[in-house]
Amino acid sequence: MSMQSVVPSLSRRQSTSAGQRPMEVHGLFGSIELMGARMSYSRNAEIYGDDEPAEYLYKVLSGAVRICKLLDDGRRQITAFHLPGEIFGLEVGNTHRFTAEAIVDSSIVVVKRSTVVALAARDGDMARQLWAHTARDLQQMQEHMLLLGCLSAKERVAAFLLQIGKRMSASNEFELPMARQDIADYLGLTIETVSRTMTQLEHDDAIGLLTSRRIVLRDRAVLKRLNA
Amino acid sequence: MSMQSVVPSLSRRQSTSAGQRPMEVHGLFGSIELMGARMSYSRNAEIYGDDEPAEYLYKVLSGAVRICKLLDDGRRQITAFHLPGEIFGLEVGNTHRFTAEAIVDSSIVVVKRSTVVALAARDGDMARQLWAHTARDLQQMQEHMLLLGCLSAKERVAAFLLQIGKRMSASNEFELPMARQDIADYLGLTIETVSRTMTQLEHDDAIGLLTSRRIVLRDRAVLKRLNA
DNA sequence: CGATAATTTGATTTTTCTCAAGACGCGTGG
DNA sequence: CCACGCGTCTTGAGAAAAATCAAATTATCG
Questions:
Q1: Among all residues of chain A, which has the CA nearest to that of B145?
Q2: Could A145 and B144 be called an inter-chain contact, meaning their C-beta atoms sit closer than 8 Å?
Q3: Pick among A119, A130, A148 to test the B interface (most B CBs inside 10 A)
Q4: What is the DSSP code (8-state) at residue A179?
Q5: CA of B70, closest CA in chain A: separation in Å?
Q6: Average pLDDT of chain B?
Q7: A→B interface, C-beta within 8 Å
Q8: How distant is C1' of D16 from CA of A155, in Å?
């Protein structure tokens, strides 16, 4: 697993075009690109590991990332996926408590945590943005707990497809970056149950499976009704 | 549900004894008592509701609180329990996204959110503490997701008892403040499964059930091995 | 084209849920 | 003090959901 093909590339601090003040315009999270280095991670590469010091903060440019924890006996829980434009790896303490891995070959901007924390110490608004980001993560986790605690397999898969669909594309069609096993570990199901449930949703005409990865949402009403 | 027997009582800003600087000594969370009003909530009273404006921040003095969300069809997920000494209700945005209810008659300190947020705007360390608190909540949610996504019924109940045991008492014996139904909704199980699992753990000599609520942890090793 | 990984499908088992009933605990009022 | 009622908890039997085991099919890559 996780072959080490991390290729750092130097594309930092490209001069901002005249008169822009990206810090104010987009806040931290719009301007991370300007402060960090672009890195490439190949499929299944580990970006950071459980219990490692949290030295960096990451933003996905392209590709996709999974945040997960592996239990001793091999069971795995994926707590989040991160798609292009999203930020991950922000910790308040100084160690990571989960592992981050590239799901497909991914391009990611990396910023030193110390830089950001120092910024926040001087700038109250920046501090607030960091807090808000952690709060957003928390909210997503709470949503996900609802899913894991209350929903049936069919409801979980439907909720998942709606969620990813919204994040991946404005239209009804999109390509899943992750394998069935990843989906299963995210939804707390087995790969077989995920597969069967997708087939079932297709028979119900709620979705279309152009290929196993390429999905069309045909009937959002049905999918949403499955949700709470 | 949730009878309105909220009894505010005025015990605020009791003069700090000479020379103490509780702000610096305990930080925000040690000194909340000094900034807020004590309130009493009776069993099953709602402390705040889903989608209500988040005007206050709360600290449990005595009793216990559940944070939950109710789905349309009656399914309920409890995302957290709060025991004496613990803080809840802190939101970054200005609405609550869950409901908080007293599990038993509870005494709770209530502080205006605006007070705390204003404090944080002036004091970077305070801001950091708020962030840290949200991060702790996040971490707990992530732990809980692991439980909901990966563990069997027996593992969940064992993990729950260890967790509550640690928070309730230094010894091995403690009284559960919540009913079986609350435990079930927290663990993503049914009340029957929780009950059966407890009986089974007792037969395994992992725990003792002095009464249905009073628990003794007899064999932590067994309980922990059930955990990850 | 062949090898390997990913996905789907089928048959069976296990776990957990559901429905139903009984036991227990506790406060109230006779 | 006891009987009653009510809410909570436990237990049992059967049903349902999802997991497991096994195999077939399909996609991917050199």
A1: A145
A2: yes
A3: A148
A4: -
A5: 9
A6: 89
A7: 69, 71-72, 75-77, 79, 91-93, 97-98, 121, 124, 127-128, 130-132, 134-135, 137-139, 141-142, 144-146, 148-150, 185, 187-188, 228
A8: 16
Q: Average of pLDDT values for B69-78?
A: 96
pTM of the predicted model as reported, rounded to 2 decimal places: 0.90
Q: Which residue has the tokens 């990396």?
A: A110
In chain B, the largest separation of any two C-alpha atoms, in whole Å, equals 57
> CA-to-CA distance for B166 and B151, rounded, in angstroms?
20
- The bridge status of strand A65-70 relative to strand A37-41 is unpaired
Q: Residue A9: what pLDDT?
A: 41
Q: What percent of chain A has pLDDT over 90?
A: 83
Report the pLDDT averaged over residues A160-187: 98
Tell me the pLDDT tens digit for each residue of B176-226: 999 999 999 999 999 999 999 999 999 999 999 999 999 999 999 999 987
Burial class (CB in 10 A: 0-12, 13-18, 19+), A217: buried
| Nearest-angstrom CA–CA distance, A86 and A166 | 14
